[in-house]
Amino acid sequence: MKLDTFFTKSIFTVGVATLTLGGYFAITSFIANYDEDVKTSPEKSFENDYNVFAIDLPEQIDFAGEKIPLDIPDIKERLDRELLVNTYWQSNALLLIKRAHKYFPIIEPILKKNGIPDDFKYLAVAESGLEHVVSPAGATGFWQIMKGTAQDYGLEVNNNVDERYHIEKATEVASQYLNNSKERFGTWTLAAASYNAGNAGISRELKRQEVDDYFDLLLNPETSRYVFRIVALKHILSNAEDFGFHYEDKDLYEMKPIKKVEVDTAVSDFVNFAKQFNMNYKTLKIHNPWLRDKHLDNYSKKVYKIEVLK
Fold first, then answer.
1. What is the per-residue pLDDT for 211?
2. How confident is the model at residue 50 (pLDDT cuts 50, 70, 90)?
């Protein structure tokens, strides 16, 4: 019991009017003894107030239908590491649960349409935490796509527009990349690993080490952990209550109802543009993070679909 909690409960129990001098000394005596107990035996405090448990690994687990060979000692240890790290980083895990409720409904149908296993939505979680982050190397957005890769797959990237921040379009590109990798390597696990290390890097290591399976490869520390982190996030987010995460529907993040308006001209000022749809500039940019400037040049008269509130 925390000291301030005990003191508050004691006052509440006896009442201010009946807190006699003797009662005061009794409370202060307990506090002194409580502090002394903690000093001489801190494990008693941890035993009563805080516990950390080892996590039972599932008897079997898969990624995109491909079995994780937990009978191999290093494989078991690598999964155990990611489960421990991501379970006991409670604040982050709970944020991921909340964001997943908001963004998975956007990502899931695009993966399905492209024949990508649903498990790959957790790759986006591992890459960015479902935030529009930028890595030190310049990888951008939910799917952490590099500028060259984005342009190779047809995304627009310039000072006005960066479609790596466009969730739907970026998910389409990630899907195409993963399908190409699966065709090249034959397994979804290697396709996932190649998303981190690159197709050339994985191909080179498979050839050098004379193996054909991700779980037989010795890779750099980041890629070695990569698939296991995805699998751990899948396991935790899919079984949140089993891992001690409790929440109600009202706690989860929601996407506000939107509609899309087509724009095929330049927009000189997004502040005034937003006002036409009863929005402010901040809300417009939150819903359209791929619009990177205060205006849109659009010299080519391209048709853009901009999200506005209904």
1. 98
2. confident
pLDDT tens across 113-143, in order?
Answer: 999 999 999 999 999 999 999 999 999 999 9
Residue 72 sits in a domain of what CATH number?
1.10.530.10
Rounded-to-integer distance, Cα 258 and Cα 250, Å:
20
What pLDDT score does 51 carry? 80
Nearest-angstrom CA–CA distance, 132 and 96: 13
Helix ranges (H only) for the chain are 3-14, 21-40, 42-49, 73-87, 90-113, 121-128, 147-152, 167-185, 188-197, 199-209, 221-238, 270-275, 281-287
Three-state SS for 260? strand
Higher-pLDDT residue of 15, 231 = 231
Q: Which domain holds residue 150?
A: 62-251
Same domain, 269 and 191: no
Cβ proximity of 157 and 207 under 8 Å: no
Whether residue 67 sits in one domain with residue 204: yes
Residues 157 and 44 in one domain: no
On the 0-12 / 13-18 / 19+ scale of CB atoms within 10 A, 231 is buried
